[in-house]
Amino acid sequence: MKGNLFLLEIFIIFGFNYPTNAGQLTYGNKAISANRLLDLSNSSLSSFKDILNHFDVVFVAFTASFESWRLIKYELIQAVDNLDDYEDPPLPIVRFDCSSESINEVCLDFNVAFDPTLVLIRYGAIDAIFHQSRDAETITQWIRKHSRLISTRFWSYTDLNNAVKMIDEVTVVAIFDDNKDELVELYHEASLKVTKKPFLSGVKFFHIIKDTAEGNDWELTELGGKSGRHWKYPLIILKRPSWLMTPLEEPIVLYPINSNEDIGQWIHRKAFGTIGWATKDNTLEDVRPPKIIVYYDHNFIQQPSFSHAWRNQIILASRRHLNIYFGIANSIVFKNKLKKYGIKVPRGKDSPVFMAYDEFGSMFVMRDEFSEKALAQFIQHFTSNLIAPIVDSFDAPIKQGLEVSPLTREITGNTFHKFVSGNSKDVLIRFTDPKCRYSSEFELYWNELAHELSGESTLELVTLDGSVNTIPSQFEVKQFPTVYLIPSKTKEKIKYRGRKSLHELIQFVAKHVNSELMSFNRDGSRRLQLIEKKLKTEF
Protein backbone atom coordinates (compact mmCIF):
# COMPACT_ATOMS: atom_id res chain seq x y z
CA MET A 1 0.00 0.00 0.00
CA LYS A 2 2.98 2.32 -0.55
CA GLY A 3 2.51 5.38 -2.70
CA ASN A 4 1.55 9.03 -2.68
CA LEU A 5 -1.66 9.18 -0.68
CA PHE A 6 -2.15 12.90 -1.00
CA LEU A 7 -1.77 15.60 -3.61
CA LEU A 8 0.75 18.43 -3.38
CA GLU A 9 -1.80 20.63 -1.60
CA ILE A 10 -1.64 18.41 1.51
CA PHE A 11 2.11 18.74 1.74
CA ILE A 12 1.82 22.53 1.42
CA ILE A 13 -1.00 22.84 3.96
CA PHE A 14 0.23 20.38 6.60
CA GLY A 15 3.86 19.75 5.82
CA PHE A 16 3.21 16.00 5.55
CA ASN A 17 5.96 13.79 4.19
CA TYR A 18 5.16 10.30 3.02
CA PRO A 19 7.21 7.76 5.03
CA THR A 20 8.75 4.45 4.07
CA ASN A 21 6.32 2.34 6.10
CA ALA A 22 3.01 1.81 4.28
CA GLY A 23 -0.20 3.37 5.49
CA GLN A 24 1.46 6.14 7.57
CA LEU A 25 2.02 9.87 7.26
CA THR A 26 4.47 12.03 9.19
CA TYR A 27 3.90 15.46 10.61
CA GLY A 28 7.21 16.88 11.67
CA ASN A 29 8.90 14.05 13.58
CA LYS A 30 5.63 12.43 14.67
CA ALA A 31 4.27 9.42 12.75
CA ILE A 32 0.52 9.13 12.45
CA SER A 33 -1.39 6.31 10.74
CA ALA A 34 -3.46 6.93 7.62
CA ASN A 35 -6.67 6.66 9.60
CA ARG A 36 -5.72 9.27 12.23
CA LEU A 37 -7.96 12.27 12.81
CA LEU A 38 -7.03 14.89 10.20
CA ASP A 39 -8.06 18.58 10.24
CA LEU A 40 -8.47 19.87 6.69
CA SER A 41 -10.21 23.13 7.61
CA ASN A 42 -7.77 25.30 5.63
CA SER A 43 -8.35 23.46 2.36
CA SER A 44 -10.00 25.13 -0.61
CA LEU A 45 -12.95 23.38 -2.23
CA SER A 46 -10.82 22.04 -5.08
CA SER A 47 -8.01 20.80 -2.84
CA PHE A 48 -10.51 19.29 -0.37
CA LYS A 49 -12.15 17.32 -3.17
CA ASP A 50 -8.77 16.25 -4.53
CA ILE A 51 -7.83 14.95 -1.09
CA LEU A 52 -11.09 13.01 -0.78
CA ASN A 53 -10.56 11.55 -4.23
CA HIS A 54 -7.46 9.78 -2.93
CA PHE A 55 -9.48 7.67 -0.54
CA ASP A 56 -12.29 5.22 -1.29
CA VAL A 57 -14.16 6.15 1.90
CA VAL A 58 -13.73 9.08 4.33
CA PHE A 59 -15.68 9.98 7.48
CA VAL A 60 -16.00 13.77 7.77
CA ALA A 61 -17.16 15.89 10.70
CA PHE A 62 -18.31 19.33 9.53
CA THR A 63 -18.48 21.73 12.51
CA ALA A 64 -19.57 25.39 12.61
CA SER A 65 -18.75 26.38 16.20
CA PHE A 66 -16.10 25.81 18.82
CA GLU A 67 -18.70 24.29 21.17
CA SER A 68 -19.84 21.61 18.71
CA TRP A 69 -16.20 20.75 17.97
CA ARG A 70 -15.40 20.56 21.69
CA LEU A 71 -18.26 18.12 22.30
CA ILE A 72 -17.43 15.82 19.41
CA LYS A 73 -13.61 16.02 19.25
CA TYR A 74 -12.67 13.44 21.87
CA GLU A 75 -15.35 11.01 20.71
CA LEU A 76 -13.81 11.16 17.24
CA ILE A 77 -10.32 10.64 18.64
CA GLN A 78 -11.60 7.56 20.49
CA ALA A 79 -13.27 6.35 17.28
CA VAL A 80 -9.91 6.73 15.52
CA ASP A 81 -8.33 4.50 18.18
CA ASN A 82 -11.15 1.98 17.78
CA LEU A 83 -10.46 1.86 14.04
CA ASP A 84 -6.75 1.13 14.43
CA ASP A 85 -7.24 -2.35 12.98
CA TYR A 86 -9.37 -1.02 10.14
CA GLU A 87 -6.67 0.02 7.70
CA ASP A 88 -7.33 -2.12 4.62
CA PRO A 89 -8.37 0.00 2.85
CA PRO A 90 -7.35 2.93 5.08
CA LEU A 91 -10.27 4.96 6.37
CA PRO A 92 -9.39 8.42 7.67
CA ILE A 93 -11.59 10.56 9.93
CA VAL A 94 -11.51 14.22 8.88
CA ARG A 95 -12.65 17.42 10.57
CA PHE A 96 -13.62 20.52 8.59
CA ASP A 97 -14.42 23.86 10.25
CA CYS A 98 -17.31 25.68 8.54
CA SER A 99 -17.12 28.80 10.74
CA SER A 100 -14.68 30.67 8.51
CA GLU A 101 -16.45 32.77 5.86
CA SER A 102 -13.49 32.52 3.50
CA ILE A 103 -13.62 28.71 3.27
CA ASN A 104 -17.30 27.97 3.77
CA GLU A 105 -17.62 27.17 0.05
CA VAL A 106 -16.74 23.60 1.03
CA CYS A 107 -19.64 23.40 3.48
CA LEU A 108 -22.02 25.00 0.98
CA ASP A 109 -20.98 22.56 -1.72
CA PHE A 110 -21.63 19.60 0.60
CA ASN A 111 -24.97 21.11 1.79
CA VAL A 112 -23.97 21.23 5.46
CA ALA A 113 -27.14 22.23 7.32
CA PHE A 114 -26.51 21.19 10.93
CA ASP A 115 -23.80 21.74 13.49
CA PRO A 116 -22.14 19.29 13.59
CA THR A 117 -22.86 17.31 10.41
CA LEU A 118 -21.24 13.89 10.31
CA VAL A 119 -21.12 12.15 6.95
CA LEU A 120 -19.51 9.25 5.14
CA ILE A 121 -18.03 10.35 1.82
CA ARG A 122 -17.50 7.65 -0.78
CA TYR A 123 -15.61 8.43 -3.99
CA GLY A 124 -15.81 12.16 -3.27
CA ALA A 125 -19.58 12.38 -2.67
CA ILE A 126 -21.75 12.04 0.44
CA ASP A 127 -22.90 8.43 0.72
CA ALA A 128 -24.55 8.39 4.17
CA ILE A 129 -25.35 10.89 6.95
CA PHE A 130 -24.84 9.99 10.61
CA HIS A 131 -27.94 10.67 12.75
CA GLN A 132 -27.27 8.50 15.79
CA SER A 133 -25.80 9.07 19.25
CA ARG A 134 -22.46 10.89 18.97
CA ASP A 135 -20.47 8.64 21.28
CA ALA A 136 -17.29 6.92 20.11
CA GLU A 137 -18.67 3.37 20.19
CA THR A 138 -21.76 4.23 18.15
CA ILE A 139 -19.70 6.22 15.64
CA THR A 140 -17.23 3.33 15.29
CA GLN A 141 -19.94 0.72 14.71
CA TRP A 142 -21.75 2.98 12.23
CA ILE A 143 -18.56 3.62 10.25
CA ARG A 144 -17.75 -0.09 10.08
CA LYS A 145 -21.26 -0.92 8.93
CA HIS A 146 -21.53 1.75 6.24
CA SER A 147 -17.95 1.92 4.97
CA ARG A 148 -17.47 -1.78 4.30
CA LEU A 149 -15.58 -2.48 1.09
CA ILE A 150 -14.93 -5.99 -0.15
CA SER A 151 -12.22 -4.96 -2.58
CA THR A 152 -8.71 -4.32 -1.24
CA ARG A 153 -7.05 -1.19 -2.55
CA PHE A 154 -3.39 -1.30 -3.55
CA TRP A 155 -1.01 1.62 -3.95
CA SER A 156 1.68 -0.21 -5.87
CA TYR A 157 1.46 -2.31 -9.05
CA THR A 158 4.20 -4.58 -7.70
CA ASP A 159 2.29 -5.26 -4.46
CA LEU A 160 -0.89 -5.91 -6.44
CA ASN A 161 0.87 -8.34 -8.77
CA ASN A 162 2.37 -10.23 -5.81
CA ALA A 163 -1.07 -10.50 -4.15
CA VAL A 164 -2.61 -11.93 -7.34
CA LYS A 165 0.29 -14.38 -7.64
CA MET A 166 -0.25 -15.73 -4.12
CA ILE A 167 -3.98 -16.46 -4.58
CA ASP A 168 -5.21 -19.49 -6.50
CA GLU A 169 -8.90 -18.64 -6.52
CA VAL A 170 -11.11 -16.59 -8.80
CA THR A 171 -9.67 -13.06 -8.64
CA VAL A 172 -11.17 -9.81 -9.93
CA VAL A 173 -8.89 -6.79 -10.38
CA ALA A 174 -10.11 -3.30 -11.27
CA ILE A 175 -7.88 -0.46 -12.47
CA PHE A 176 -9.26 3.07 -12.60
CA ASP A 177 -7.77 6.39 -13.69
CA ASP A 178 -9.21 8.05 -10.59
CA ASN A 179 -12.00 7.68 -8.04
CA LYS A 180 -14.30 9.88 -10.11
CA ASP A 181 -14.95 7.20 -12.72
CA GLU A 182 -18.64 6.24 -12.64
CA LEU A 183 -17.67 2.57 -12.87
CA VAL A 184 -15.96 2.71 -9.44
CA GLU A 185 -19.22 2.65 -7.49
CA LEU A 186 -20.73 -0.02 -9.73
CA TYR A 187 -17.63 -2.18 -9.19
CA HIS A 188 -17.81 -1.93 -5.40
CA GLU A 189 -21.57 -2.59 -5.42
CA ALA A 190 -20.95 -5.70 -7.53
CA SER A 191 -18.26 -6.95 -5.13
CA LEU A 192 -20.70 -6.69 -2.22
CA LYS A 193 -23.45 -8.54 -4.10
CA VAL A 194 -21.16 -11.28 -5.42
CA THR A 195 -19.63 -12.18 -2.07
CA LYS A 196 -23.07 -12.46 -0.46
CA LYS A 197 -23.65 -15.53 -2.63
CA PRO A 198 -22.13 -18.58 -0.89
CA PHE A 199 -21.16 -20.01 -4.27
CA LEU A 200 -18.99 -16.95 -5.02
CA SER A 201 -17.94 -16.02 -1.49
CA GLY A 202 -14.33 -17.08 -2.21
CA VAL A 203 -13.86 -14.60 -5.06
CA LYS A 204 -11.09 -12.09 -4.26
CA PHE A 205 -11.43 -8.42 -5.24
CA PHE A 206 -8.52 -5.98 -5.66
CA HIS A 207 -8.39 -2.48 -7.11
CA ILE A 208 -5.84 0.22 -7.79
CA ILE A 209 -6.15 3.90 -8.78
CA LYS A 210 -3.71 4.99 -11.47
CA ASP A 211 -3.44 8.57 -10.15
CA THR A 212 -2.07 7.37 -6.81
CA ALA A 213 -0.37 4.14 -7.91
CA GLU A 214 3.36 3.57 -7.70
CA GLY A 215 5.03 1.90 -10.67
CA ASN A 216 3.65 0.88 -14.08
CA ASP A 217 0.77 -1.39 -15.10
CA TRP A 218 3.11 -3.59 -17.17
CA GLU A 219 4.31 -4.93 -13.80
CA LEU A 220 1.02 -6.86 -13.55
CA THR A 221 2.53 -9.90 -15.23
CA GLU A 222 0.08 -12.24 -13.47
CA LEU A 223 -2.71 -10.52 -15.41
CA GLY A 224 -0.98 -10.50 -18.78
CA GLY A 225 0.86 -7.20 -18.36
CA LYS A 226 4.12 -6.73 -20.22
CA SER A 227 6.41 -3.96 -21.32
CA GLY A 228 5.02 -2.13 -24.34
CA ARG A 229 1.44 -3.20 -23.67
CA HIS A 230 -0.89 -0.30 -23.00
CA TRP A 231 -4.26 -0.91 -21.34
CA LYS A 232 -7.14 1.49 -21.69
CA TYR A 233 -8.82 2.43 -18.41
CA PRO A 234 -11.13 1.76 -16.66
CA LEU A 235 -10.36 -1.95 -16.75
CA ILE A 236 -11.84 -4.93 -14.88
CA ILE A 237 -9.97 -8.22 -15.19
CA LEU A 238 -11.09 -11.67 -14.04
CA LYS A 239 -8.47 -14.36 -13.50
CA ARG A 240 -9.49 -17.99 -13.06
CA PRO A 241 -7.59 -20.32 -10.69
CA SER A 242 -4.84 -22.56 -12.04
CA TRP A 243 -6.69 -25.75 -11.06
CA LEU A 244 -9.48 -24.80 -13.49
CA MET A 245 -7.27 -23.85 -16.43
CA THR A 246 -7.61 -25.74 -19.70
CA PRO A 247 -6.34 -25.12 -23.26
CA LEU A 248 -9.99 -24.69 -24.30
CA GLU A 249 -10.50 -21.54 -22.22
CA GLU A 250 -8.66 -18.28 -21.62
CA PRO A 251 -7.43 -18.02 -18.01
CA ILE A 252 -7.94 -14.24 -18.02
CA VAL A 253 -11.00 -12.39 -19.32
CA LEU A 254 -11.75 -8.67 -19.56
CA TYR A 255 -15.05 -7.06 -18.66
CA PRO A 256 -16.56 -5.42 -21.77
CA ILE A 257 -16.83 -1.83 -20.53
CA ASN A 258 -19.26 -0.72 -23.24
CA SER A 259 -21.61 -3.68 -22.86
CA ASN A 260 -23.61 -2.23 -19.93
CA GLU A 261 -23.82 -5.78 -18.54
CA ASP A 262 -24.21 -5.90 -14.77
CA ILE A 263 -20.71 -6.45 -13.35
CA GLY A 264 -21.94 -8.94 -10.74
CA GLN A 265 -23.78 -10.97 -13.38
CA TRP A 266 -20.70 -10.92 -15.59
CA ILE A 267 -18.54 -12.25 -12.73
CA HIS A 268 -21.13 -14.95 -11.99
CA ARG A 269 -21.18 -15.94 -15.65
CA LYS A 270 -17.43 -15.93 -16.22
CA ALA A 271 -15.95 -16.98 -12.85
CA PHE A 272 -15.78 -20.74 -13.48
CA GLY A 273 -15.44 -20.88 -17.23
CA THR A 274 -17.66 -21.11 -20.25
CA ILE A 275 -19.95 -23.79 -18.81
CA GLY A 276 -21.96 -23.64 -15.60
CA TRP A 277 -20.98 -25.02 -12.22
CA ALA A 278 -23.84 -26.33 -10.10
CA THR A 279 -23.49 -26.48 -6.33
CA LYS A 280 -25.93 -26.66 -3.42
CA ASP A 281 -25.85 -22.87 -3.31
CA ASN A 282 -25.87 -22.41 -7.07
CA THR A 283 -28.30 -24.95 -8.50
CA LEU A 284 -28.43 -23.15 -11.88
CA GLU A 285 -32.23 -23.05 -11.63
CA ASP A 286 -32.13 -19.38 -12.65
CA VAL A 287 -30.44 -20.27 -15.95
CA ARG A 288 -32.86 -20.09 -18.84
CA PRO A 289 -33.60 -23.57 -20.30
CA PRO A 290 -33.09 -25.66 -22.29
CA LYS A 291 -30.06 -26.83 -20.33
CA ILE A 292 -28.09 -30.00 -19.66
CA ILE A 293 -26.37 -30.60 -16.33
CA VAL A 294 -23.71 -33.33 -16.26
CA TYR A 295 -23.33 -35.15 -12.93
CA TYR A 296 -20.04 -36.90 -12.15
CA ASP A 297 -17.63 -37.31 -9.23
CA HIS A 298 -15.27 -34.49 -10.17
CA ASN A 299 -12.44 -33.24 -7.98
CA PHE A 300 -10.16 -30.80 -9.77
CA ILE A 301 -7.58 -30.81 -6.97
CA GLN A 302 -7.18 -34.54 -6.24
CA GLN A 303 -8.23 -35.96 -9.64
CA PRO A 304 -7.45 -33.19 -12.15
CA SER A 305 -6.93 -35.42 -15.22
CA PHE A 306 -10.24 -37.28 -14.88
CA SER A 307 -12.17 -34.14 -13.91
CA HIS A 308 -10.77 -32.04 -16.77
CA ALA A 309 -11.19 -34.82 -19.33
CA TRP A 310 -14.95 -34.85 -18.87
CA ARG A 311 -15.22 -31.09 -18.44
CA ASN A 312 -13.37 -30.57 -21.73
CA GLN A 313 -15.79 -32.96 -23.44
CA ILE A 314 -18.68 -30.90 -22.13
CA ILE A 315 -17.06 -27.62 -23.23
CA LEU A 316 -16.72 -29.04 -26.75
CA ALA A 317 -20.33 -30.24 -26.66
CA SER A 318 -21.48 -26.75 -25.65
CA ARG A 319 -19.76 -25.35 -28.74
CA ARG A 320 -21.53 -27.84 -30.99
CA HIS A 321 -24.96 -27.16 -29.46
CA LEU A 322 -25.11 -23.41 -28.97
CA ASN A 323 -28.84 -23.41 -28.19
CA ILE A 324 -28.28 -25.55 -25.06
CA TYR A 325 -26.78 -24.30 -21.79
CA PHE A 326 -24.33 -26.82 -20.30
CA GLY A 327 -23.15 -27.15 -16.71
CA ILE A 328 -21.42 -29.64 -14.44
CA ALA A 329 -22.35 -30.84 -10.96
CA ASN A 330 -20.71 -33.11 -8.43
CA SER A 331 -22.70 -36.34 -8.31
CA ILE A 332 -21.88 -36.94 -4.64
CA VAL A 333 -23.19 -33.51 -3.66
CA PHE A 334 -26.43 -34.20 -5.59
CA LYS A 335 -26.68 -37.92 -4.74
CA ASN A 336 -30.04 -37.56 -2.96
CA LYS A 337 -31.55 -35.93 -6.04
CA LEU A 338 -30.24 -38.69 -8.31
CA LYS A 339 -31.38 -41.46 -5.96
CA LYS A 340 -34.84 -39.91 -5.73
CA TYR A 341 -35.36 -40.62 -9.42
CA GLY A 342 -33.74 -44.04 -9.37
CA ILE A 343 -30.53 -42.94 -11.08
CA LYS A 344 -27.28 -44.66 -10.13
CA VAL A 345 -24.93 -42.15 -8.51
CA PRO A 346 -21.60 -41.93 -10.42
CA ARG A 347 -18.69 -42.52 -8.04
CA GLY A 348 -14.96 -42.40 -8.57
CA LYS A 349 -14.30 -42.64 -12.30
CA ASP A 350 -17.80 -43.75 -13.30
CA SER A 351 -19.19 -42.17 -16.46
CA PRO A 352 -21.33 -39.06 -15.92
CA VAL A 353 -25.11 -38.79 -15.97
CA PHE A 354 -26.44 -36.32 -18.53
CA MET A 355 -29.71 -34.74 -17.42
CA ALA A 356 -31.67 -32.21 -19.49
CA TYR A 357 -34.16 -29.65 -18.15
CA ASP A 358 -36.88 -27.91 -20.13
CA GLU A 359 -38.49 -24.51 -19.50
CA PHE A 360 -40.90 -26.04 -16.97
CA GLY A 361 -38.23 -27.75 -14.88
CA SER A 362 -39.07 -31.24 -16.16
CA MET A 363 -36.03 -33.57 -16.19
CA PHE A 364 -34.92 -35.94 -18.95
CA VAL A 365 -32.05 -38.39 -18.54
CA MET A 366 -29.78 -39.75 -21.29
CA ARG A 367 -29.83 -43.55 -20.98
CA ASP A 368 -27.22 -44.36 -23.64
CA GLU A 369 -23.48 -44.43 -22.97
CA PHE A 370 -21.87 -41.11 -23.83
CA SER A 371 -20.58 -40.40 -27.30
CA GLU A 372 -20.88 -37.37 -29.54
CA LYS A 373 -23.49 -39.17 -31.63
CA ALA A 374 -25.46 -40.39 -28.59
CA LEU A 375 -25.50 -36.90 -27.05
CA ALA A 376 -26.57 -35.29 -30.34
CA GLN A 377 -29.43 -37.79 -30.67
CA PHE A 378 -30.48 -37.24 -27.06
CA ILE A 379 -30.55 -33.47 -27.58
CA GLN A 380 -32.56 -33.87 -30.80
CA HIS A 381 -35.14 -36.07 -29.05
CA PHE A 382 -35.23 -33.78 -26.02
CA THR A 383 -35.81 -30.57 -28.00
CA SER A 384 -38.42 -32.32 -30.18
CA ASN A 385 -40.38 -33.64 -27.14
CA LEU A 386 -39.83 -37.23 -28.22
CA ILE A 387 -38.75 -38.55 -24.81
CA ALA A 388 -40.63 -38.66 -21.52
CA PRO A 389 -39.42 -36.81 -18.42
CA ILE A 390 -38.49 -38.44 -15.11
CA VAL A 391 -41.60 -37.90 -13.01
CA ASP A 392 -44.11 -39.55 -10.73
CA SER A 393 -46.97 -40.26 -13.09
CA PHE A 394 -50.43 -41.76 -12.56
CA ASP A 395 -51.73 -43.99 -15.35
CA ALA A 396 -53.40 -41.99 -18.09
CA PRO A 397 -57.20 -42.00 -17.78
CA ILE A 398 -59.20 -44.05 -20.26
CA LYS A 399 -61.50 -41.12 -21.10
CA GLN A 400 -59.82 -37.92 -22.21
CA GLY A 401 -61.68 -34.71 -21.44
CA LEU A 402 -64.77 -33.75 -19.53
CA GLU A 403 -68.31 -34.49 -20.65
CA VAL A 404 -69.18 -30.78 -21.15
CA SER A 405 -66.51 -30.02 -23.75
CA PRO A 406 -63.98 -31.80 -25.95
CA LEU A 407 -61.65 -28.86 -25.35
CA THR A 408 -60.45 -30.09 -21.96
CA ARG A 409 -57.89 -32.84 -21.50
CA GLU A 410 -56.69 -34.70 -18.41
CA ILE A 411 -52.93 -35.22 -18.53
CA THR A 412 -50.35 -37.04 -16.40
CA GLY A 413 -46.71 -36.51 -15.49
CA ASN A 414 -45.60 -38.62 -18.45
CA THR A 415 -47.74 -36.73 -20.96
CA PHE A 416 -47.06 -33.23 -19.60
CA HIS A 417 -44.22 -32.58 -22.06
CA LYS A 418 -46.43 -33.67 -24.98
CA PHE A 419 -49.54 -31.63 -24.20
CA VAL A 420 -47.89 -28.63 -22.49
CA SER A 421 -44.15 -28.28 -23.25
CA GLY A 422 -44.47 -29.37 -26.85
CA ASN A 423 -47.94 -27.98 -27.55
CA SER A 424 -48.13 -25.51 -30.44
CA LYS A 425 -51.30 -24.00 -28.97
CA ASP A 426 -51.83 -21.68 -26.02
CA VAL A 427 -52.37 -23.85 -22.94
CA LEU A 428 -54.49 -23.19 -19.86
CA ILE A 429 -53.50 -25.73 -17.20
CA ARG A 430 -55.28 -26.48 -13.94
CA PHE A 431 -53.41 -28.24 -11.12
CA THR A 432 -56.00 -29.96 -8.98
CA ASP A 433 -56.65 -32.62 -6.33
CA PRO A 434 -59.94 -34.56 -6.66
CA LYS A 435 -60.09 -35.00 -2.89
CA CYS A 436 -59.69 -31.26 -2.23
CA ARG A 437 -62.91 -29.37 -1.39
CA TYR A 438 -61.73 -26.19 -3.12
CA SER A 439 -60.88 -28.13 -6.28
CA SER A 440 -64.40 -29.60 -6.27
CA GLU A 441 -65.93 -26.15 -5.87
CA PHE A 442 -63.86 -24.81 -8.77
CA GLU A 443 -64.98 -27.66 -11.07
CA LEU A 444 -68.21 -25.82 -12.00
CA TYR A 445 -66.36 -22.69 -13.15
CA TRP A 446 -63.83 -24.78 -15.07
CA ASN A 447 -66.59 -26.64 -16.93
CA GLU A 448 -68.37 -23.37 -17.76
CA LEU A 449 -65.10 -21.92 -19.02
CA ALA A 450 -64.52 -25.00 -21.19
CA HIS A 451 -68.00 -24.61 -22.66
CA GLU A 452 -67.48 -20.89 -23.43
CA LEU A 453 -64.13 -21.57 -25.12
CA SER A 454 -65.11 -24.78 -26.89
CA GLY A 455 -64.79 -23.17 -30.32
CA GLU A 456 -61.23 -21.91 -29.85
CA SER A 457 -58.88 -23.80 -32.18
CA THR A 458 -55.70 -22.19 -30.83
CA LEU A 459 -56.31 -22.87 -27.14
CA GLU A 460 -56.30 -26.06 -25.12
CA LEU A 461 -57.44 -26.58 -21.52
CA VAL A 462 -55.67 -29.33 -19.57
CA THR A 463 -55.90 -30.68 -16.02
CA LEU A 464 -53.13 -32.33 -13.99
CA ASP A 465 -53.88 -34.20 -10.76
CA GLY A 466 -51.13 -32.78 -8.54
CA SER A 467 -51.76 -35.34 -5.80
CA VAL A 468 -50.41 -38.28 -7.84
CA ASN A 469 -48.32 -36.64 -10.59
CA THR A 470 -45.08 -34.66 -10.32
CA ILE A 471 -45.65 -30.92 -10.74
CA PRO A 472 -42.76 -29.41 -12.73
CA SER A 473 -40.56 -27.27 -10.48
CA GLN A 474 -41.04 -24.07 -12.49
CA PHE A 475 -44.69 -23.91 -11.40
CA GLU A 476 -45.46 -22.45 -7.98
CA VAL A 477 -48.35 -24.55 -6.67
CA LYS A 478 -48.94 -23.93 -2.97
CA GLN A 479 -52.60 -24.94 -2.96
CA PHE A 480 -55.24 -26.55 -5.15
CA PRO A 481 -56.60 -25.57 -7.52
CA THR A 482 -53.90 -23.45 -9.22
CA VAL A 483 -54.29 -22.23 -12.79
CA TYR A 484 -51.57 -21.11 -15.23
CA LEU A 485 -51.69 -19.88 -18.80
CA ILE A 486 -48.76 -20.76 -21.09
CA PRO A 487 -48.70 -18.71 -24.34
CA SER A 488 -47.61 -20.78 -27.33
CA LYS A 489 -44.67 -18.64 -28.39
CA THR A 490 -43.04 -17.41 -25.19
CA LYS A 491 -43.91 -20.42 -22.98
CA GLU A 492 -44.09 -17.92 -20.14
CA LYS A 493 -45.84 -19.24 -17.02
CA ILE A 494 -48.59 -16.73 -16.13
CA LYS A 495 -50.41 -17.49 -12.89
CA TYR A 496 -54.13 -16.76 -12.45
CA ARG A 497 -54.66 -14.74 -9.27
CA GLY A 498 -58.31 -13.77 -9.67
CA ARG A 499 -61.48 -14.99 -7.99
CA LYS A 500 -63.66 -18.00 -8.79
CA SER A 501 -65.50 -16.11 -11.48
CA LEU A 502 -66.22 -17.14 -15.06
CA HIS A 503 -65.97 -13.53 -16.25
CA GLU A 504 -62.55 -13.00 -14.60
CA LEU A 505 -61.26 -16.31 -15.96
CA ILE A 506 -62.28 -15.29 -19.48
CA GLN A 507 -60.67 -11.86 -19.04
CA PHE A 508 -57.44 -13.52 -17.88
CA VAL A 509 -57.33 -15.94 -20.82
CA ALA A 510 -58.29 -13.33 -23.42
CA LYS A 511 -55.61 -10.91 -22.20
CA HIS A 512 -52.66 -13.32 -22.11
CA VAL A 513 -53.13 -15.83 -24.95
CA ASN A 514 -50.72 -15.48 -27.83
CA SER A 515 -53.43 -15.98 -30.48
CA GLU A 516 -56.48 -13.76 -29.96
CA LEU A 517 -59.68 -15.64 -29.15
CA MET A 518 -62.34 -15.89 -31.82
CA SER A 519 -65.17 -15.43 -29.33
CA PHE A 520 -63.76 -12.69 -27.07
CA ASN A 521 -61.82 -9.45 -27.38
CA ARG A 522 -58.59 -8.84 -25.45
CA ASP A 523 -60.54 -7.19 -22.60
CA GLY A 524 -62.76 -10.26 -22.20
CA SER A 525 -65.83 -8.77 -23.84
CA ARG A 526 -67.71 -10.96 -26.31
CA ARG A 527 -67.12 -10.09 -29.95
CA LEU A 528 -70.03 -8.08 -31.45
CA GLN A 529 -70.49 -10.23 -34.56
CA LEU A 530 -71.02 -13.29 -32.37
CA ILE A 531 -73.66 -11.49 -30.34
CA GLU A 532 -75.47 -10.46 -33.55
CA LYS A 533 -75.26 -14.01 -34.89
CA LYS A 534 -76.72 -15.37 -31.65
CA LEU A 535 -79.61 -12.88 -31.77
CA LYS A 536 -80.42 -13.82 -35.38
CA THR A 537 -80.47 -17.47 -34.42
CA GLU A 538 -82.84 -16.85 -31.51
CA PHE A 539 -85.29 -14.77 -33.55
Walkthrough of the structure:
This protein has 539 residues and is α/β, with parallel strands linked by helices. It folds into four domains: 139 residues, 3-Layer(aba) Sandwich (Glutaredoxin), CATH 3.40.30; 119 residues, 3-Layer(aba) Sandwich (Glutaredoxin); 108 residues, Glutaredoxin (3-Layer(aba) Sandwich); 122 residues, Glutaredoxin (3-Layer(aba) Sandwich), CATH 3.40.30. The strands form five sheets. A five-stranded mixed beta sheet has the order 4-6-5-7-8, with helices on one face. A five-stranded mixed beta sheet has the order 9-11-10-12-13, with helices on both faces. A five-stranded mixed beta sheet has the order 14-16-15-17-18, covered by helices on one side. 35% of the residues are buried. This is protein disulfide-isomerase. GO terms for molecular function: protein disulfide isomerase activity. Pfam families: Thioredoxin (PF00085).
Quick gist of this model?
The chain has 539 residues and is α/β, with parallel strands linked by helices. The chain is 29% helix and 20% strand. It folds into four domains: 8-146, Glutaredoxin; 152-270, 3-Layer(aba) Sandwich (Glutaredoxin), CATH 3.40.30; 276-383, Glutaredoxin (3-Layer(aba) Sandwich), CATH 3.40.30; 408-529, Glutaredoxin (3-Layer(aba) Sandwich).
